[in-house]
Specification:
With 409 residues, this protein is α+β, with helices and mostly antiparallel strands. The chain has a single domain, classed as Thiolase/Chalcone synthase (Peroxisomal Thiolase, Chain A, domain 1), CATH 3.40.47.10. The protein is 30% helix and 26% strand. The protein contains ten helices and 17 strands. It has a nine-stranded mixed beta sheet, sandwiched between helices. β2 and β3 form a beta hairpin. α2 crosses α3 and α8 packs across α9. The longest helix is centred in the last third of the chain and has 29 residues. The protein is globular. The two termini are 39 Å apart.
Length: 409
């Protein structure tokens, strides 16, 4: 069997050292599909750990070696390596992720053939932002106009798909707020997820989170109504009352339901909107607490299958109305929480007569939360043809679900 290659060892990866602390490895890859006019960038930072070397890092951060029964079979869950940074102080954490975010926006614009000054909006998902005004700050550093709309989305692993959904679906508007999708129609928009989860989990004492989560980012270029055309979509929220996957809210939120919703939408200033989801927070104040891998399966699969099924049937009805009932979903871009979750979702969907490809594409990253769907999309992008219909399936702690079908190109 060939030795597994880390992300940094793959061909065509741009590698450099971010000058923070003693130097942090950073690698990224740009992708562009000229037939679709769609491109983007994805990458990771920190040292790469395979499943064997990860055990030592986890033991160090956990404070003691893991018992045999607590060591997860990560290969079975679809993960072979992930990226972690050493402990940094707060200013170093901020500076590192500022440099990463700035570079990701610049490279994503470049991948689409845009000047950063041409970007009209930036929607970034982050489950645990390093600072509350992170999106504003990286946009300013990147040279994106102050007048460009910035949207910070905090819905855990669902955050980047939630951002894409907001950019495309006019039905998601809230009374008293601008209709983001109508505002962005035909404009140059960057959508992505940037997750410094090594920072986030390093202060946790959760043995499962320490093994699963890691750093990564992915940002794509979208022109709503042109390169991405919205077909159908739904979002769904259901509070995780048991705290199966409890997450600390490192962003402004009142800590309770906002009217009849878990989501608070606030206009931070004329060009910055925050979409923040209520989380069941760990009782001990730690960043994250998990009930275990099977808890995640139970948390996400049943409701996730229901939301995907509803969207799929709406999609089928739309295709009939358009006179193309034979038009299939070309591919599903599904959040890579772990392979068993995705496998079980696919199996249950098949039992309901719903079947489309759901490729597993992130074995060299681990669970990277909001970055996951964007990386999966960019890795699949070279295989997508103009006119293909693609389904995005985002889900995350809270719990939040965004599922939408789009036509590309």
């Amino acid at each position: 069997m060939n030795k597994h290659q880390s992300f940094f060892e793959l061909p065509n990866i741009n590698k450099e050292i971010i000058p923070v602390a003693s130097g942090i490895p950073f690698g990224f890859s740009t992708v562009y599909n000229p037939a679709l006019g769609i491109g983007g960038v994805y990458g990771a930072w920190g040292d790469s750990y395979d499943n064997h070397s990860l055990c030592g890092l986890v033991a160090q951060r956990y404070g003691e070696p893991l018992d045999d029964e607590d060591i997860m079979n990560l290969a079975e869950l679809g993960f072979l390596s992930r990226h972690h940074i050493p402990p940094l102080d707060k200013p170093e954490d901020i500076e590192l992720e500022m440099q990463i975010g700035t570079r990701m926006l610049q490279e994503a614009a470049r991948a689409n053939g845009w000047q950063v000054g041409e970007v009209d909006a930036v929607l970034i998902g982050a489950g645990g932002p390093v600072i509350p005004d992170y999106v504003e700050q990286i946009c300013r550093r990147a040279g994106i106009p102050e007048t460009a709309l910035k949207v910070s989305v905090h819905k855990a692993c669902d955050s980047s798909v939630a951002g894409l959904h907001l950019a495309l679906n006019p039905a998601l508007t809230r009374q008293g707020h601008i209709n983001i999708a109508e505002e962005l129609l035909g404009k140059k928009v960057l959508v992505g997820g940037i997750e410094g989860l090594s920072r986030f989990t390093s202060h946790s004492h959760d043995k499962y989170a320490l093994q699963l989560f890691a750093n990564a980012a992915g940002v794509i270029g979208v022109i709503p109504g042109e390169t991405f055309k919205f077909l159908v979509g739904r979002n769904h929220e259901a509070f995780d009352g048991e705290g199966v996957l409890a997450i600390h809210m490192y962003y402004p939120h009142p800590g309770k339901n906002v009217g009849d919703s878990l989501i608070e939408v606030t206009q931070e200033n004329p060009s910055h909107i925050r979409v923040a989801g209520l989380m069941h927070e760990p009782k001990d104040g730690s960043p994250i607490s998990m009930a275990g891998p099977m808890g995640m399966v139970k948390l996400f699969v049943r409701t996730g299958v229901k939301v995907v099924t509803e969207v799929f049937y709406e999609y089928a009805e739309l295709m009939k109305k358009l006179g193309t009932p034979e038009k299939q979903i070309a591919v599903g871009i599904v959040h890579h929480a772990n392979y068993k979750i995705n496998q079980l979702k696919a199996k249950q969907l098949q039992s309901a007569g719903i079947e489309f490809p759901m490729p597993w594409l992130l074995s060299d990253f681990g669970n990277v939360s909001a970055a996951s769907n964007m990386i999966a999309f960019l890795r699949q992008l070279p295989n997508i043809k103009p006119g293909d219909n693609v389904l995005f399936d985002g889900f995350g702690a809270g719990t939040y679900y965004d599922v939408l079908a789009v036509t590309l190109g």
